[in-house]
Amino acid sequence: MERQETVEIDGGMLEAGGQVLRTTLALSAISGKPVHIKNIRASRPKPGLRPQHLAAVKTIASICNAELYNATIGSAELFFAAKKISATNLNVNIGTAGSVSLLLSQILPVSLLQEIKLHVSGGTNVPFSPPMEFLRKVLFPQLHKMGARLEAHVNRFGYFPKGNGSVSFSSKPARLPLKPIAITNFGKLEFVRIFSHCASLPKSVALNQVIAAKQELRRLNTEVEERVECRENAATIGSGITVFARTNSGVILSGSALGAKGKPAEMVGKEAAKNLLNELRPRQPCDSHLADQLIPFMALAQGKSEIHCTKLTKHCVTNIAVVEKFLPAKFSVEGKVEEPAKISVEGIAFSAKGN
After folding, report:
1. 245: number of CA atoms within 13 Å, CB side?
2. Catalytic residues
3. CA–CA separation, 310 vs 283, rounded Å?
4. Contact, 98 vs 49, CB < 8 A?
5. What is the pLDDT of residue 2?
6. Domain residue spans in the chain?
7. CB-based contacts of 2, cutoff 8 Å, min separation 6
8. In this predicted model, what pLDDT tens digit does every residue of 316-333 receive, in sequence order?
9. How many Å from the N-terminal Cα to the C-terminal Cα in the chain?
10. Whether the Cβ atoms of residue 154 and residue 166 lie closer than 8 Å to each other
11. Confidence of residue 354 (pLDDT cuts 50, 70, 90)
């Protein structure tokens, strides 16, 4: 990569959390533009880099052979300059119940260019992050359509606060430039799938989550498939449930919930079902959480991409702002934050030349 002028990013912009950091480093690596980030996670109760963020920063730095300054716990600023994205095989231990899915989301753009293999230990199902089931069943299928070649397998669950989950991730160079994507047709609901799981708890916990979710979803009047997985003597303790809805246009929307000490299993199942129903209510085809994840890939693709999302989140608006700092792409957004929206962009037809 040719060294370019350093991009300045204020980590206190918009959503002001880890999303700014993750998208910034991914696009800095892809574009070859060094970046200086300040005010990292400025609005959070514990601002600056936390252990899970530092693990993600060091992982992408290793993949990109990057120069890295101020990468310490609590640091509110960071300098990152990628040199060359290389094929990599790493063991990554987040060291806490930090989110494996968020760490992986940061390295997905660089995974377009090389064969990357990661074995990650941490939290697979933890608060304030998408569960691994979301990446595997909602995000990855859409990225596959665009030409990405990604796989992830959950070897064992990891719940807050112990973590101790295990995920194997692999990628092969994508077919570049990526194809544009259109998620604009909701279609007709075909079926719902429920995946309920627990560890170091009675199997009845996972089963009761399913029963409560199914009761809440009866109003959909559609076929419901279910899968339950329980590991009674695990290195972690907890439960979770994710509910997926698929339509005949290939759309997959989801809702999930996590168990917690003192929280009845029935409440967990009901919460996940309600989250799915909230996604289905606007009858828009792109899951609100999927929308913000797709933004960088839409900008990198060749041609016009368009998605109609169930809700325009602050994460999504933040991702758009960061992408436009690094790439010569301009998004069009029709809709207000926290409401359904249409998002489109003419991609830059990014290829692997120069990496």
Report:
1. 31
2. 315
3. 7
4. no
5. 53
6. 1-86, 88-175, 187-280, 284-355
7. 32, 354
8. 999 999 999 999 999 999
9. 5
10. yes
11. very low
CA angle, 82 as apex, 78 and 84 as ends, to 5°?
A: 160
* All residues at 6 or more sequence positions from 222 whose CB lies less than 8 Å from its CB, including other chains: 189, 190, 191, 192
- Mean pLDDT across the chain: 94
Q: Is the pLDDT of residue 168 over 70?
A: yes
Report which residue type is found at 31: S
What Cα–Cα distance (Å) separates residue 273 from each residue in 238, 239, 282? 19, 15, 15
Neighbouring-strand partners of residue 79: 36, 69
**Which listed CATH number (2.20.28, 3.30.110, 2.30.30, 3.30.1360) goes with 1-86?**
3.30.110
Percent of the chain surpassing pLDDT 70: 97
Question: With 80 as the cut, is the pLDDT of residue 4 above it?
Answer: no
Q: Which residues pair with 150 in a beta bridge?
A: 171
- Distance of alpha carbon 330 from alpha carbon 336, whole angstroms: 17
Question: What number of other Cβ atoms are within 10 A of residue 322's Cβ?
Answer: 27
Q: Which residue has the tokens 């997926």?
A: 244
Report the top-level CATH class of 187-280: alpha beta
pLDDT at 230 over 50: yes
SS3 readout for 177-195 = CCCCCEECCCCCEEEEEEE
